[in-house]
Amino acid sequence: MDCADIALIVLAAGLGSRFGADKLSVPLDGLPVGLHIAHTSNSIDFGWRFAICSPASSLTPRYVEYGFTVIDNANPEAGQAHSLHLAIRAAEDTDAKALLVTLADMPFVTEGLLRKIAAFPTMAASYNGRNAMPPVLFPRTHWAGLLNMQGDAGGRSLLHAAQKVEASAAELRDIDVPDDLVRPADA
């Protein structure tokens, strides 16, 4: 699939309760955790870019600098599915053929991985053949199903038939607790 036909989505409205602070604003290698995916994807010509953020997010102006349309999620406690619903509603007003969903707390995703996932009709990352996980590409035909998801399940139930692209453990690391900032890449 051509990246110009894809809406890039960054889900960045999580509560971060296990971290104990705004984990997306914590510096990591000179950039806030939550902006790594925006920086990594900057050289890919996605047709649309949406960041779903909490209304008070300090990263909102920075996402705008990276060319994202920021959508406020005033109800982040409703879970990841609610953020995904907001993204889908915004993308429905575009000609996008697919959504490439990424998570702002996964700062180690590479441009190469994003490009591989964007190349197929339904694609998700995987490590050692484990379950499909973000980043994940959902074609427009899946959007109605995604709108039925609730809580933090996101689109997990729709991924059973997704093709998987192998990614390294380092690429798929997420930041949930402060120790994740210093955890070795192979952990």
UniProtKB/TrEMBL annotation:
Keywords: Magnesium, Transferase. It comes from the Bacteria. GO terms for molecular function: nucleotidyltransferase activity. Residues 9-163 form the MobA-like NTP transferase domain. InterPro entries: MobA-like_NTP_Trfase (IPR025877), Nucleotide-diphossugar_trans (IPR029044). PANTHER family: MOLYBDENUM COFACTOR CYTIDYLYLTRANSFERASE. This is Nucleotidyltransferase family protein. It comes from Sphingorhabdus lacus.
